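quick one before i forget lol
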Amino acid sequence: MQLTHYNTNFKKRKFPITLVCDNVTNAPNIGSLFRIADAFGVEKLILCGAGISLGRKITKTSRAAEKVVDFEICESASKVVKDLKAANYQMISLEITSTSKPLHTLKFSTEKPIALVIGDENFGVSEAILNISDLVVHIDMFGLNSSMNVVQATNIALYEITKQFI
């Protein structure tokens, strides 16, 4: 028998993970990020950038997750990252760079909260944030493309990180 939202037995949990979105502006992507933040027990979602507001396109994709996920909208991702770093968060950016590490090979500390920074749909995580990150991680890819949609990449990253807390 297939289970529904009402009869699954998944244990509800929150993990010490804050998802920081550096200029992710596509409404369906933002809605999907709310949904996966809820699914993976993310403590807080911080949407950074100019002109971000919750509208019908976001709420349609989020399937009401914006009502249960703690979130904040901020202008500057760099300021958010600096503030979280000062609050002793592990700053992990999800981006392909010449020095990034494969996500699946890493062991994350469960002693400190994690801030996972994801980037703009076209330009990724800003250079300023990459420079102050404690760790830059990427997802190994085996096809012709060198990147994937920000939501799919975030799903994979949150799965890899949260399974280390279980």
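fyi The domain at 15-162 is CATH 3.40.1280.10 (Alpha/beta knot).
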